[in-house]
Design brief:
Elements lengths: L1 H24 L11 H14 L9 H14 L7 H13 L1 H10 L2 H27 L11 E2 L5 E2 L7 H20 L6 H18 L2 H21 L3 H18 L3 H21 L1 H18 L16 H8 L10 H37 L4 H15 L5 H16 L7 H8 L20 H4 L1
Antiparallel strand pairs: 1-2
Helix pairs in contact: 1-2, 1-16, 3-4, 3-14, 5-16, 6-7, 6-8, 7-8, 7-9, 7-10, 7-15, 7-16, 8-10, 8-11, 9-15, 11-12, 12-14, 14-15, 15-16
């Protein structure tokens, strides 16, 4: 099991730093490095088979059937084998990994990964500030999006801003867990990371980043209300946030970033009719494609054809051949019947992971719900054609389920793996107020 744990750690490292490799270290290999994690996923599957882990989940067969059916339908669409293969890896390849992760990791492992994310978030925040302060044509800003304010929307080590949003949302989940579940992480580390999340969010220029971190905060407050404990930790978090605002507001970069983010809310809000329009736009990314299903060919335009990578293969530059929204892409590629089935599949997958997180909360374990708050929308309708978004959706979902797993005794677990034991670990039961998970990470 140690080997599989190592492979999952490698997956996480590649997820965070593959964009940096593609942008700055090996830009000539940008295209092949898009799928750098896929061979690793296949190797994890082979090792899982060797160690007799179970692939049996309620989503395994539907995922397989949809993969075969949509591949066959692609013969009537694009007919491009390379693009079809890319579509297969985008929509189906990593689904089993989500359900293998909780068989490999437990809550202690997840908490340790949270500490790793904390440390990585510090230099990432520094990089975000440097990108924000640098001109758009700077080498540091390769892969960033220029704004009409004369700055950029930083992407840190990721290829695009969406990766940064997903990363800091996940960091925020562990940050609030550390405040509520005291003694899990050192207070000095929580203090620093609070500042990094705030300054990265302010300089991101992304409404989604602020909304996603805010969603995690709402989930944290909800956990405290449901459990009836942890209010002191939330109070400490609020004090630290106010202190961080007071300190960071004395810096020009935070002040400028906050002003631009506020201005972006106002500018786009005027077009979308405020918060109501923002929510309506999000809901529209799911409802509009359903209303326009009859505009797609019955058998679709071909699996993978709606991804940026497909545009690069066909036209030499990345863009959107079809709809930009995820559900629109699925229907555009697979047609109204199988496209709708894929949308339903994503809904069911989201509900399943969310239900496990809720059940863990009922037993006092808040970590799964906090992680789910950070990744749930990525599972539901995140743009999986973007490698970082796909990675955070799958890995975040897997961490949600793994956080439901009580820490196990390694020797006893290996004993069970070989079929010599029959003890099973229930998700999230009997979690103490201050888990022993603090020991391996502090």
């Amino acid at each position: 099991m140690t080997n599989l744990r190592t492979l999952l750690w490698l997956y996480l490292v590649l997820l965070i730093f593959e964009g940096a490799v593609r942008k700055w270290i090996l830009p000539s290999l940008d295209a092949p490095l898009l799928v750098i994690r896929d061979p690793l996923v296949m190797w994890i599957y082979l090792q899982a088979v060797h160690q007799r882990l179970s692939f049996r989940s309620s989503f395994f067969m539907p995922n397989l059937v949809l993969a075969v059916a949509t591949t066959f339908l692609s013969l009537f669409g694009s007919g491009n084998l390379l693009i079809t293969i890319y579509g297969l890896r985008t929509d189906f390849l990593q689904i089993p990994l989500l359900f293998l992760i909780p068989q490999i990791l437990n809550r202690d492992d997840v908490i340790a990964m949270g500490k790793f994310l904390f440390y990585v978030s510090i230099p990432c925040a520094i990089l975000v500030v440097l990108q924000f302060r640098s001109p758009p044509d700077s080498l540091l800003n390769k892969g960033t999006l220029a704004t009409h304010y004369g700055t950029v929307r930083p992407s840190a080590t990721f290829s695009f801003i969406t990766g940064l949003v997903a990363f800091y949302s996940l960091v925020a989940a562990f940050l609030f867990y550390g405040f509520i579940q005291v003694r899990t992480y050192k207070i000095w580390l929580l203090t620093i990371v609070t500042g990094t999340v705030m300054i990265a969010t302010a300089c991101s220029g992304s409404r989604s980043c602020l909304v996603m971190v805010g969603l995690v905060a709402v989930a944290a407050v909800a956990c405290v209300i449901v459990r009836g404990k942890g209010g002191f930790g939330i109070a400490i978090a609020a004090v630290l946030v106010m202190f961080a605002v007071a300190v960071l507001s004395t810096t020009s970069v935070f002040e400028k970033g906050s002003e631009q983010l506020t201005q972006r809310f106002e500018d786009v809000g005027a077009q979308e009719n405020g918060a109501e329009g923002f929510v309506g736009r999000f809901v529209g990314t799911m409802l509009v494609p359903l209303e326009q299903m009859d505009e797609s060919p019955l058998f679709g335009n071909g699996l993978g054809i709606g991804t940026n990578a497909a545009a690069g293969m066909l036209f030499g530059s990345r863009g959107f051949i079809g709809p930009e929204d995820e559900w629109g892409r699925l229907i555009f590629e697979c047609g109204p019947i199988f496209g709708l089935l894929l949308c339903i599949f994503r809904v069911a997958l989201t509900v399943s992971v969310g239900h496990s997180a809720y059940q863990a909360l009922r037993h006092g374990n808040i970590l799964p719900l906090l992680i789910f708050a950070a990744c749930g929308l990525l599972i539901l309708n995140g743009q999986w054609g973007v490698p970082a978004t796909l990675g955070f959706a799958i890995f975040g979902g897997g961490l949600t389920l793994a956080a439901c797993e009580e820490p196990w005794d390694e020797e006893e677990h290996e004993h069970d793996e070989h079929g010599e034991g029959d003890e099973h670990h229930e998700h999230g039961e009997h979690e103490p107020d201050h888990p022993h998970a603090a020991d391996p990470v502090d």
